Amino acid sequence: METTIISYILPKGLLEHFTVITVYELCNINVKEHYFEISLEENNRILNEEIDISQYESKGFTEITIQDFPIRGKALFLKIKRRRWRNKINPSTIIRNDFSFVAEGSGFTQELSDFLKGTGRYKG
């Protein structure tokens, strides 16, 4: 998949940690609106260097959908599959990488949230 053009659309740095799986233009039949959906999957890499990665194994995903800036007047949704790692010795211990691209308490990217709030932090 060509990621050069997509890298201009996605939040900065996202493609360092995620792989684009699909890009679709879809239609919500109920409201007859077209929108874009980009599906991404987190790379199998623990970012915390203090963790002994030999003690953990990748064990599934959690999926979130967040909204980003519209493209050509159509909504853009990012379906993000975030990886979970389970401790091999203590299976109840689960870790995830910490990313800041999702605005806390919202379904928006941090950049879109900042823009909508008018905080001035967005430097598009």
Short description:
This protein has 124 residues and is mostly beta strands. The protein is built from two helices and five strands, in the order αβββββα.
Task: Report on the architecture of this protein.
With 124 residues, the chain is mostly beta strands. The protein has one domain. Helix content is 11%, strand content 43%. It is built from 2 helices and 5 strands. The two termini are 25 Å apart. The model has no long low-confidence stretch (mean pLDDT 84).
Helix content: 10-25%
Radius of gyration: 16 Å
| Pattern of helices and strands | HEEEEEH
Quote the average pLDDT: 84
Alpha-carbon distance between the two ends:
25 Å
- pLDDT below 50 for ≥5 consecutive residues: which ranges? none
Question: Oligomer, anyone?
Answer: single chain
Please render the helix and strand layout as text.
Blueprint: H1 4-9, E1 18-28, E2 33-42, E3 56-71, E4 74-87, E5 94-95, H2 110-117
Parallel strand pairs: 2-4
Antiparallel strand pairs: 1-2, 3-4, 4-5
Question: What are the defining features of this structure?
Answer:
124 residues; mainly beta; 5-stranded mixed beta sheet; 5 strands; 11% helix
